[in-house]
Design a protein that fits this description.
Elements lengths: L13 H10 L18 H11 L3 H13 L3 H13 L7 H13 L3 H13 L7 H13 L3 H13 L7 H13 L5 H11 L5 H5 L49 E7 L3 E4 L8 E5 L4 E8 L2 E5 L5 E5 L3 E4 L2 E4 L28 E8 L2 E5 L6 E4 L3 E7 H13 L3
Antiparallel strand pairs: 1-4, 1-12, 2-3, 4-5, 5-11, 6-10, 7-8, 8-9, 9-10
Length: 399
């Protein structure tokens, strides 16, 4: 990047200059796509789950329809897919077009990505002055990556007259939102300019990020581009899902749970037999999505039954011995009260829970599940330990 010469209170030392240049790398934020920052349509949520199951064609079809009708989160999601090569005839130009549509409607991460594209000339003619305009808009909406880049631009004199105070303000705001590079960069600037920046930093206040759906595509990196998680951004910055909110602690993961009490059904239909009521706040794993339904299982697998003769047992463990053996939720072959949920695979290793006459109750393998409306699911970030504690509570209630 070319440096412009300005008269400044203190020139940047060559060592600090090189350090700052090494972190000033605009990278698209494909933030984690999460449809649950606020209410979303069932279609958007189905597309979101499909995306995370790598059913890109299905997700693109739904998001494109929503995007053409003006949904900014779907526009952002399609932009992420275009940028990651997950969409039909993907190209940086198409990604820029979709990001621009979302940015015009106020999507802060899309604004950031529009700025990155303009800065790098990715899918659009390079225009760094305009890039800074978009970053400033995103920064004012609370995007930490835009705040960080804008601060560095002011400090290094990149398309801006060098201004230490303004630089410290923006990087301080990014640091308060746990931007991964902001703390060490801010400390380096303070060390280089003692007294000039300390007051600015101490008075910094954080603009609140938008409450918008992002993409889970991955977590922001050096210059934020937040995941479809994305990512939308899972390079130095990984493509992740849109996460304008504060970046969650590194020991957290994205999980699923029921948002309200729901019945698991044997197939994705409202009139399909229900075989298990799930309380609200029940942890689940999503196996598949189909239309507005999702197939889920429990963290330890569903409780199911199998004929003893098809199970080789050893204490509380067992091995399925046979082919085309139906999975049943109850110790019965009555399809109305104990509808088949799938077929066991010969050699499946399972946990044995109970014995009843000629039947054995087991935890089914994780590919066996029941169907629930996708709208009754919610994603959340938490530690593995907390999720296990929540599951232990539900398991203690009989699940």
């Amino acid at each position: 990047m070319s440096m412009k010469s300005f008269v400044t209170p203190k020139r940047v030392t060559s060592r600090l200059k090189q350090f700052l240049r090494n972190v000033f790398l605009p990278i698209f934020i494909l933030a984690t796509l999460t449809p649950f920052a606020f209410a979303q349509t069932d279609d958007y949520t189905s597309a979101y789950i499909g995306y995370h199951l790598n059913n890109f064609e299905y997700s693109e079809k739904i998001w494109t329809e929503l995007a053409k009708n003006g949904d900014m989160n779907s526009q952002y999601a399609i932009g992420v897919m275009q940028l990651r090569g997950e969409s039909t005839n993907s190209s940086p130009k198409k990604a820029f077009e979709w990001f621009s549509m979302a940015a015009e409607q106020g999507h802060s991460t899309a604004m950031f990505n529009v700025g990155v594209a303009l800065w790098e000339g990715s899918g659009v003619e390079q225009n760094r002055e305009e890039a800074l305009v978009w970053w400033e808009q995103a920064a004012n909406k609370g995007d930490s990556g835009a705040q960080f880049n804008l601060g560095l631009a002011h400090y290094l004199g990149e398309e801006k007259q060098r201004n230490i105070e303004v630089a410290a303000k923006w990087i301080s705001l990014a640091e308060q939102q746990n931007h991964p590079e902001a703390n060490r960069v801010l400390q380096a600037i303070i060390d280089e300019n003692p007294g000039v920046t300390s007051k600015i930093v101490s008075q910094g206040t954080v603009a609140q990020p938008d409450n918008q759906t992002g993409s889970e595509i991955a977590a922001p990196s050096t210059v934020e581009i937040s995941s479809p998680e994305p990512a939308e951004s899972e390079p130095e910055a990984v493509v992740t899902t849109d996460q304008p909110e504060e970046t969650p602690p590194s020991d957290t993961q994205t999980y699923w749970k029921t948002s309200l009490a729901s019945d698991l059904r044997s197939s994705p239909k409202k009139n399909a037999p229900a075989f298990l009521p799930l309380p609200a706040e029940t942890p689940v794993d999503v196996i598949q999505t189909r239309g507005q339904w999702s197939k889920v299982t429990l963290p330890e697998g569903l409780k199911t039954w199998i004929y003893n003769k098809y199970l080789i047992t050893n204490a509380d463990s067992g091995t399925v011995n046979g082919t085309n053996i139906r999975v049943r939720p109850n110790a019965s072959t009555d399809n109305a009260t104990s509808p088949p949920l799938g077929i066991y695979r010969n050699g499946d290793e399972v946990k044995v829970l109970n014995q009843y006459e000629t039947w054995a109750q087991i935890r089914a393998p994780k590919y066996i599940g029941g169907w629930i409306p996708t709208k009754n699911l919610v994603s959340y970030n938490d530690t593995k330990e907390n999720r296990q504690a929540l599951w232990a509570l539900r398991a203690g209630e009989g699940l």
